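Could you join me in thinking about how sequence relates to backbone shape in a protein? Label the sequence line and the structure token line clearly, so we can match residues to local backbone shapes. Once you have written the record down, we can walk along the chain together.
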Amino acid sequence: MVNEFFDDEGSTHLFQLVHMIQRSAMMHMGMLPDSEGRAHYNLGETKAAIDTLSMLKTKMTGNLNPKENTMLNGIISELQLQFVKAPARQRALEDQVAESEAVRETFTNPQEGPVEIITDEEE
């Protein structure tokens, strides 16, 4: 069975492989959760996935039709863009987790939580 988008079965299988590598890269940039719903950040794995797709593109030069070439270029470009943004996403997630942990700790142990004293006195 040939996917309606692709012209032949070989193209369908090629882009199934590309999609698997793309999903792996996205998962290791925290863009897709793992099977247990957790976010992961492993930029080394992400870089390896992007490098693999770039190598495939180089090795297939002259063998892709224009539609396949455009798709592969778009996937690689988008992953590279997201790779640059990944550290900021990771920091934001870590800040959010730390804030949630502080709130949870305050409600779990209120006597040890942060205190803000409000007075009407002018200093």
